[in-house]
């Protein structure tokens, strides 16, 4: 039975998203009045202070995001799902062709695809440039001797140009995540962190099918005890306990439920591949472990996953 809703943003990501949205509104709203004071009769110092304060908060958010990425990597999860790869450009072209009515099949739409990766890479890479040039513009006296008037003018031009450039990925992100025609009239996940499963399935059909689609028979297994509310950690521990007792079917069920709550949880994905291997289901184990390595190629469990894949290939070669 499909869940009624799925967590798409945990509490930390939800806080970062809301704070980033607020900072973006302030920065974009005050920037033009700083560069062109004649646009408003309000004291320019108000816009300068608001812009600088929002920039400091945005810098803290950016550093907090990097800290979150580092923590997830140390926990064995995959924090790099939003980084572009070689296939994303092709999926982007396929999406444009499909939207224009030329493509027969839509592009892959898992949890992270070109729709998220395009604005993400813009924001993550261009923000340090915005911060550096913004500091130069706000403190011209400190570096005027080093850069000279032409250098400061270049900093102003770069800062303004990137600010305008970032409007495009911002509109892109809002369009696809909040108001995608035919799927969403409004996505409340920005404020709640959760999304109705039916809407999520319509928006990201490959998200659930990519890993869980081939294991419908395992999902039919039911545990004797059904807690009213369980966390990913509870399901992971229940799966580990079932695996230790030799009940690999039940262990696989718990790991699949954990992946439903947190599709990017590398530890649950690896554990699922292990119990499928131990149950003798080499084909499915190979699919899961290959997906795990594609998602988390340098994690602590990666060497063990490669070792199991080598054993599976030997077994498959014998048949």
Our measurement of the CA-to-CA distance between the termini, rounded to an integer number of angstroms, reads 36 Å
Helix count, DSSP H or I runs of 4 or more residues = 15
- Topology as a string of helices (H) and strands (E): EHHHHHHHEHHHHHHHH
Order of the strands making up the biggest sheet = 1-2
Determine and state the CATH class of the largest domain.
Mainly Alpha
Structure described in brief:
The protein is an all-alpha fold. The chain has 15 helices and two strands. The protein has helices at residues 11-35, 44-74, 88-99, 114-138, 140-165, 167-178, 189-192, 197-203, 205-212, 216-219, 232-244, 248-261, 266-278, 282-295, 302-318, and strands at residues 5-7, 194-196.
Break the fold down into its secondary structure elements and pairings.
Layout: E1 5-7, H1 11-35, H2 44-74, H3 88-99, H4 114-138, H5 140-165, H6 167-178, H7 189-192, E2 194-196, H8 197-203, H9 205-212, H10 216-219, H11 232-244, H12 248-261, H13 266-278, H14 282-295, H15 302-318
Antiparallel strand pairs: 1-2
Helix pairs in contact: 1-2, 2-4, 4-5, 4-6, 8-9, 11-12, 11-13, 12-13, 13-14, 14-15
Keywords:
319 residues; mainly alpha; Fumarate Reductase Cytochrome B subunit; Serine Threonine Protein Phosphatase 5, Tetratricopeptide repeat; 2 domains; two-stranded antiparallel ribbon; 2 strands
Q: What does the model show?
A:
With 319 residues, this protein is mainly α. The chain folds into two domains: 5-222, Up-down Bundle (Fumarate Reductase Cytochrome B subunit), CATH 1.20.950; 232-318, Tetratricopeptide repeat domain (Serine Threonine Protein Phosphatase 5, Tetratricopeptide repeat). The chain contains 15 helices and two strands. The chain has helices spanning 11-35, 44-74, 88-99, 114-138, 140-165, 167-178, 189-192, 197-203, 205-212, 216-219, 232-244, 248-261, 266-278, 282-295, 302-318, and strands at residues 5-7, 194-196. It has a two-stranded antiparallel ribbon. Helix 13 runs antiparallel to helix 14. The mean pLDDT is 78.
């Amino acid at each position: 039975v499909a869940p009624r809703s799925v967590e798409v943003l945990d509490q930390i990501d939800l806080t970062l998203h809301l704070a980033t949205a607020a900072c973006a509104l302030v920065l974009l709203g005050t920037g033009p009045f700083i560069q062109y004071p004649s646009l408003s009769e309000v004291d320019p110092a108000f816009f300068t202070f608001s812009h600088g304060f929002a920039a400091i908060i945005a810098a803290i958010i950016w550093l907090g995001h990097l800290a979150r990425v580092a923590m997830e990597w140390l926990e064995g999860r995959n924090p790099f799902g939003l980084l572009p790869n070689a296939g994303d450009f092709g999926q982007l072209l396929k999406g444009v062709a499909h939207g224009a009515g030329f493509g027969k099949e839509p592009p892959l739409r898992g949890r992270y695809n070109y729709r998220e990766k395009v604005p993400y890479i813009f924001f993550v890479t261009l923000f340090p440039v915005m911060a550096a040039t913004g500091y130069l513009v706000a403190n011209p006296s400190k570096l005027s001797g080093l850069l000279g008037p032409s250098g400061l003018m270049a900093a102003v031009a770069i800062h303004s140009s990137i600010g305008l450039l970032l409007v495009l990925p911002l509109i892109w992100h809002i369009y696809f995540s909040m108001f995608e025609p035919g799927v969403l009239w409004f996505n409340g996940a920005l404020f709640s962190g959760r999304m109705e499963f039916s809407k999520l399935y319509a928006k990201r059909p490959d998200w659930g099918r990519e890993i869980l689609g081939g294991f419908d028979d395992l999902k039919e297994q039911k545990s004797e005890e059904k807690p009213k509310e369980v966390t990913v950690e509870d399901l992971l521990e229940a799966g580990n306990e079932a695996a230790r007792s030799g009940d690999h079917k039940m262990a696989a069920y718990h790991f699949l439920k954990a992946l439903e709550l947190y599709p990017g949880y590398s530890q649950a994905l690896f554990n699922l591949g292990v119990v499928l291997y131990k149950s003798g289901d080499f084909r499915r184990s190979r699919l899961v472990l290959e997906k795990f390595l594609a998602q988390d190629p340098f994690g602590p469990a990666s060497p063990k996953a490669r070792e199991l894949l080598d054993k599976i290939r030997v077994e498959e070669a014998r048949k």
